[in-house]
Write a structure and sequence with these properties.
Rossmann fold; about 30% helix; alpha/beta; 10 helices
Length: about 300
């Protein structure tokens, strides 16, 4: 089934070239079907790149998925044009009276700040509080996952000695959880962050399930027992080249970043990396849409 996106969204041409079935609003209104409504709060600086990455993963479902994008009103992104935001994004004030089947809150490059120091923290907490009653299930990614653990469950992050960047091996802790149904017992996933969350506090919390973890990258997939929240501390949505782009960006800034672990062939930044986490990413997003969104949302929502 197709994924519905705003007409003329630049990601549409990229996805069409990949033979991903998409449709715009005009075509979608002819479909006699109850589509899933997914809201994406995009906090990433490279918004158009993140749009494409998430839409690609949301497309791999037998369900029709309608996607809307949300931006913060309290902070203006410096890496996207105002015209792009005006054309393809909404503010919280525009959607606060609506209901959505699912929502994604992305990561953001602010993990070295205390939560209350983040420019849009008050707005984000208002949105997260609103999601309790207006969204069936929310997927939180990277810093978004850390923010959710802090706001909803009182679990704070801690700073790492050095940035965790690379492709790390993970193992399933609770393979029976539907989010990872069909996943391998061990799998790879990318990480890119300066902070982590305490595994023991997650395991000891009565409302949370630690689904998967990594010896080197720490807790990876956490779900709430009521299925309301899915927290992924890494970046399954990343393209093969994304970690490399971040690495070379840091070099250009005059920083001295570590080469991402197990990412470039032979640890040579001049060589092209491969995407070794794609199948797991598609499966997890598909499972979320099916088990946590579609099967939990009332038809008349």
């Amino acid at each position: 089934m197709p994924i519905k996106i705003p007409k003329n969204l630049p990601a549409g041409d990229i996805l069409a070239n990949e033979k991903i079935f998409i449709m715009d609003e005009q075509q979608a209104v002819t479909q006699d079907i109850r589509p899933l409504k997914i809201l994406v709060l995009n906090l990433m600086p490279e918004k158009q790149r993140t749009e494409t990455q998430l839409l690609r993963l949301l497309s791999n479902s037998p369900l029709q998925v309608n996607v809307e994008f949300l931006h913060t009103a309290s902070y203006a992104s410096k890496n996207v044009s105002k015209s792009h935001l005006d054309q393809f994004y909404k503010s919280f004030q525009q959607i606060k009276d609506l209901r959505y089947d699912g929502m994604i809150i992305t990561g953001a490059p602010v993990e070295q700040l205390q939560y209350e120091q983040v420019a849009y923290w008050n707005e984000l907490t208002e949105i997260m509080e609103w999601s309790k009653t207006n969204v069936t299930s929310v997927m939180h990614i990277c810093w978004g996952a850390q923010a959710a653990l802090y706001y909803h469950y009182g679990i704070d992050k801690y700073h790492l000695p050095q940035k965790s960047t690379g492709v790390f091996n993970h193992h399933l802790v609770h393979a029976e959880v539907e989010l990872v149904r069909g996943c391998d017992d061990e799998f790879l996933a990318p990480h890119s962050r300066y902070t982590s969350v305490p595994e023991k506090e997650i395991q000891d919390h009565e409302d949370l399930i630690l689904v998967s973890s990594s010896e080197h990258a720490g807790p990876f997939t956490i779900v709430s027992k009521d299925r309301k929240h899915v927290m992924i501390t890494g970046h399954l949505e990343y393209d093969a080249a994304t970690l490399g782009l971040e690495y070379h960006r840091d070099i250009e800034k005059g920083l001295d970043p570590n080469i991402p672990t197990d990412y470039f062939p032979a640890d040579d930044p001049e060589q092209k990396p491969a995407n070794r986490w794609r199948s797991h990413a598609y499966l997890m997003f598909s499972n979320w849409l099916n088990y946590y969104v579609y099967q939990q949302t009332p038809y008349s929502w």
